[in-house]
Design a protein that fits this description.
Helices cover 40% and strands 8% of the residues. By secondary structure, it is mainly α. It has 2 domains: 377 residues, Serine Threonine Protein Phosphatase 5, Tetratricopeptide repeat; 60 residues, no CATH class. It comes from Christiangramia sediminicola.
C-alpha cells in the first residue's frame, strides 16, 4: 500500500471543501502547496506529472477502480447487495440522501479529476516539444469531457424531469478562478455540447504517433470511443456512427474470441482494449477493489441476479459455471455459481491479492455494439446485424436472426455485465429499473421519472454553493 498523507483539498474548482488523501508519489493539485501549481508548470515533465495525477485520481476506488462501475450495476437489474459487509445496500435500495458518503465522494473525486485537467489545459509557456505538449493537453480535454459526462449520467435530471433541458451539472473549465468560484448547474444538453467540443479539441491537438501502446493513457482512438459512447447515450446516432467508425477503421483493435475472453481480463493491453486504468501491486486497492466487492471474502457484497444469469446459453463464456474457491475450483465462465448459492462475477477483475488487474474503461466490443446500434438507428439494419453478431459469434452463443433495439440492448447487457453500463442503458431508453427478483432485490421497482434515478447533490456542496440547486425529491 502507498503511504497516505492527509491534506485539505479545495476542489480546484470552487466546488466545495473536501478532506481527502494522496500519496507522496502523486503530483496532484492541492491548494495546500506553498507555490501556485499554475506557475510551477514550466517544462513538459511538469505537465506530464500533473496528467499522471489526473490518471491516478481516475484510478481511485471512488471512480473507475470501483464506485462508478459498481453503481452502474447495483442500480440496475443485473446485481444487488447481499449486505455481507453492509456496502452498497443503500445504493441497491435507491435510498441515498444528500448526506450519503458515496454521493459526496463520487462528486468530489470526479471534480478533482476535472481540476487536474483544467490545470493542464490552462498551462502556458511550457518548454519542450510542442507536438508532445499538445498531445498531453489533448488527453486533458478528453478527461474533462468524459468526467463531466460521468457526472451528468448520475446527477443529471434527464431521467427525472426529462430531456436535455433538464438540470445537469456545472461544466467547469477553469482551475481556481476567483470570478467563478460558485458555478451554477449547466443543463444536460449544455454538458453534452461542451463535452463534444472538448473531444473535438482533443482530436485536433493529439497525434496518433504519440499514442501509448500500453493503452494506459487516452489515445486518439480512445477519444473517438468516448465520443461514440456519449453520442450513443444521447441518441445522436450519426455522430455515434461516425465516431465509432473512426475507431473501427483504425484497424488497431479486434473482438477477442471465447478462448481468450477471460484471459484478457487477467492480463493488460489485450487486442480488444482501447483504454485501461492501470493497476499494479504497488497501487493495490486491496479489499477496496472491484474483485473484492464482487467475489467472496471480507466484502463480497455485490452478487449477480438470477435474471441476468438466465440470459446466457450453455456454452457462452460469459455465462454460469460452478466454482468453489475453498476447494480451488475455478469457473470456466464470467459468472461463478458458489456453493452457497450466490452468483458471482469472478471472470472480470479477477485478481484479489494483490488487486492488480487493469480496469477496462473502453473495450472494442462496446464500440462494435455502439456501431451496430447506430447503423440500426440510421436505417442500415442489414449491416447492423453483421456487427451485432460479431460479439455472440465470439462468445460461444447463438447469432441473432435480426438486428432490433431489444436484441442490441440484450447483447449489451450480456457482454458488458459488471462493467457499469446497465443502469445507463436502462435510463437512456426510458425503461426504469424493474424489480425482477423480489427476494434478492432491495426495492420494488423504480419507474422512469422517479426522483431516485438521479443521485442527490451532496449536502457538502449545496451548503457552500447556493448556486447549485438540489435535485428534485431531496429537499
Amino acid at each position: 500500500m502507498k503511504m497516505k498523507l492527509k491534506y485539505l483539498f479545495v476542489l480546484g474548482l470552487g466546488l466545495g471543501l473536501a478532506t481527502t488523501s494522496c500519496s507522496e508519489e502523486d503530483l496532484e493539485p492541492t491548494l495546500a502547496q506553498d507555490k501556485s501549481i499554475e506557475t510551477s508548470i514550466n517544462e513538459i515533465g511538469d505537465l506530464q506529472a500533473v496528467l499522471i495525477g489526473a490518471y491516478e485520481r481516475i484510478q481511485e476506488n471512488t471512480y473507475y477502480s470501483r464506485d462508478v462501475i459498481v453503481m452502474g450495476e447495483i442500480m440496475s437489474d443485473n446485481t444487488t447487495s447481499n449486505a455481507n459487509s453492509n456496502r452498497f445496500v443503500t445504493e441497491a435500495q435507491f435510498s441515498l440522501t444528500p448526506e450519503s458518503g458515496i454521493v459526496a465522494t463520487l462528486w468530489e473525486n470526479l471534480y478533482e479529476v476535472i481540476g487536474s485537467a483544467n490545470i493542464i489545459i490552462a498551462a502556458e509557456g511550457i518548454s519542450g516539444d510542442e507536438n508532445r505538449i499538445n498531445h498531453l493537453k489533448g488527453q486533458a480535454y478528453a478527461i474533462r469531457a468524459l468526467t463531466h459526462f460521468d457526472l451528468v449520467t448520475f446527477y443529471g435530471q434527464q431521467n427525472v424531469t426529462g430531456g436535455e433541458s433538464a438540470l445537469g451539472v456545472p461544466y467547469v473549465t477553469t482551475f481556481r478562478d476567483n470570478e467563478s468560484l460558485f458555478p451554477s448547474r449547466n443543463t444536460v444538453g449544455e454538458v453534452k455540447m461542451m463535452a463534444y467540443a472538448d473531444l473535438e479539441m482533443a482530436l485536433s491537438l493529439m497525434d496518433p504517433t504519440f499514442d501509448d501502446p500500453a493503452k494506459e493513457y487516452i489515445t486518439t482512438s480512445a477519444v473517438s470511443a468516448i465520443e461514440a459512447r456519449i453520442a450513443n447515450y444521447f441518441g445522436d446516432w450519426q455522430r455515434s456512427l461516425t465516431a465509432s467508425e473512426r475507431v473501427i477503421d483504425s484497424g488497431n483493435f479486434s473482438v477477442v474470441g471465447a478462448d481468450t475472453f477471460l484471459a484478457n481480463f487477467d492480463a493488460d493491453g489485450g487486442a480488444n482494449m482501447i483504454w485501461e486504468v492501470a493497476n499494479t501491486p504497488t497501487d493495490n486497492a486491496d479489499i477496496n477493489g472491484l474483485a473484492n466487492i464482487y467475489q467472496t471474502g471480507s466484502y463480497g457484497d455485490v452478487i449477480a441476479l438470477p435474471n441476468l444469469a438466465a440470459t446466457y446459453e450453455d456454452g457462452d463464456v460469459r455465462g454460469v459455471s460452478d466454482y468453489d474457491p475453498a476447494a480451488g475450483m475455478a469457473p470456466s465462465t464470467v459468472i461463478g455459481l458458489h456453493p452457497d448459492g450466490t452468483l458471482r462475477n469472478v471472470g472480470k477483475y479477477p485478481s484479489t491479492a494483490p488487486y492488480e488487474d487493469n480496469i477496462p474503461v473502453i473495450r472494442f466490443e462496446e464500440v462494435v455494439l455502439i456501431y451496430a446500434e447506430a447503423l440500426l438507428e440510421t436505417g442500415n439494419a442489414g449491416d447492423a446485424l453483421d456487427w451485432l453478431n460479431m460479439v455472440p459469434e465470439n462468445r460461444g452463443a447463438t447469432s441473432y436472426a435480426a438486428a432490433t433495439k431489444d436484441n442490441i440492448l440484450l447483447e449489451r447487457r450480456k457482454e458488458l455485465a459488471f462493467e457499469g453500463f446497465r443502469f445507463h442503458d436502462l435510463m437512456r431508453t426510458g425503461m426504469g429499473v424493474e424489480a425482477k427478483d423480489p427476494v434478492l432485490q432491495l426495492h420494488t421497482g423504480i419507474p422512469f421519472g422517479d426522483f431516485r434515478l438521479a443521485l442527490p447533490i451532496p449536502s457538502s456542496e449545496t451548503a457552500v454553493n447556493s448556486n447549485v440547486q438540489q435535485n428534485q425529491g431531496y429537499n
